[in-house]
Design brief:
Helices cover about 45% and strands about 15% of the residues. It has two helices and three strands, in the order βββαα. The protein has helices spanning about 30-35, 45-75; strands at about 5, 15, 25-30.
């Protein structure tokens, strides 16, 4: 079970009887409690990050190419 602790000026810890919800110091967790905690996001591997970056770059490039073709066609419409 989590315990509330305070840091004393000499950097030692002192346990308090405070409730977990009203703790003004730090919560001391057991290894089992830490294992239960879920990360806010799933970390990506280097390969997965590179794949996502490549997909974003490809989509951005496709949008730029679409805009360039659209501008080219609009500029040449009155010249035929």
């Amino acid at each position: 079970m989590a315990s509330c602790v305070l840091v004393k000026p000499d950097n030692s810890l002192i346990a308090t009887a405070d409730n977990v919800q009203s703790c003004n110091g730090y919560l001391l967790l057991s290894p089992q409690e830490v294992a239960v905690l879920q990360p806010a996001f799933v970390p990506l591997s280097v390969g997965e990050g590179a794949l996502i970056s490549g997909a974003i770059l490809a989509l951005w490039s496709l949008a730029w190419l679409y805009g360039a073709i659209s501008r080219f066609l609009q500029s040449n419409q009155g010249e035929s």
